[in-house]
Design brief:
Blueprint lengths: L4 E4 L6 H12 L3 E3 H11 L4 H11 L1 H21 L5 E3 L10 H11 L4 E6 L4 H15 L4 H13 L2 H5 L2 E4 L5 H11 L3
Parallel strand pairs: 1-3, 1-4, 2-3, 4-5
Helix pairs in contact: 1-9, 2-4, 3-4, 4-5, 6-7
Length: about 190
C-alpha cells in the first residue's frame, strides 16, 4: 500500500498540480481539498451567503478565518477515509491561529510520515513575488488580496510545525517538483 502524501503550502505553490502528477505516477487517488471541502463544510452548517458577505465586507483573510472550523472538519473526514493517495490541502487549511484548531490539525497529520510543504523559495519575500507572478499570469481579480493572504501564510509558523519535508519549486517544472518529493518520501 502506498503511504499517503499530504501537500501543504500557500496559494499558487503548486499543490494541486503536483498532487495530480504524484497521484498519476503512483497510480493512486488524488484528494484535492479545494474540491472536496464543500460537501464536508455543509455537514456542520457552512453558510455560503455569510461567507460571501464576509469576503465582500472584510476581505479574503476574514473569510479564511470563517472557514477555519469547517476546514478542520473536512480534513478529519478525508483523513478518516484512510487514504492511500495524495491529499493536497487548501492554502488556509493548515494555517490556524486558534490553538485548539491548530492542535487538532497537528493531531490529524501526526501519523502521516509524508507531509510535504511546497514553497517557491526559502526566502519568504522571493516566494511572495513568485506567487504574485504565478497568480497574475492566471487570474486578473483579487491579486492584492491573494498577496496579502499569502504573506500571512508564508510567515505563519503552522506549516513549518506540520511539515516533515520541505520542497522548493523555484526553477523546477511540476514534474521535477514531483520527482523531488518522491526522492524524499516513503511512497
Amino acid at each position: 500500500m502506498v503511504q499517503p502524501i499530504i501537500l501543504i503550502g500557500p496559494m499558487q505553490a503548486g499543490k494541486s498540480t503536483v498532487g495530480q502528477l504524484l497521484a498519476e505516477k503512483l497510480q493512486v487517488k488524488q484528494y484535492s481539498m479545494d474540491r472536496l471541502c464543500w460537501q464536508y463544510y455543509a455537514e456542520i452548517g457552512y453558510d455560503a451567503e455569510l461567507a460571501d458577505r464576509i469576503w465582500a465586507e472584510k476581505g479574503l483573510l476574514s473569510v479564511f478565518q470563517y472557514w477555519k472550523p469547517f476546514a478542520v472538519h473536512a480534513m478529519e473526514r478525508v483523513l478518516a477515509l484512510e487514504p492511500s493517495g495524495v491529499i493536497d490541502l487548501g492554502a488556509g487549511d493548515s494555517i490556524h491561529d486558534d490553538p485548539d484548531l491548530l492542535r487538532r490539525v497537528q493531531d490529524l497529520v501526526a501519523p502521516f510520515r509524508n507531509v510535504v510543504l511546497l514553497l517557491p523559495s526559502p526566502d519568504p519575500v522571493e516566494s511572495l513575488e513568485i506567487i504574485r507572478e504565478r497568480y497574475a499570469a492566471r487570474f486578473q481579480d483579487n491579486v492584492e488580496e491573494v498577496i496579502l493572504a499569502n504573506r500571512y501564510f508564508l510567515h505563519h509558523p503552522a506549516n513549518q510545525l506540520l511539515a516533515k519535508h520541505v520542497v522548493y519549486t523555484k526553477g523546477k517544472t511540476p514534474q521535477q517538483t514531483r520527482d523531488a518529493i518522491l526522492e524524499l518520501v516513503d511512497a
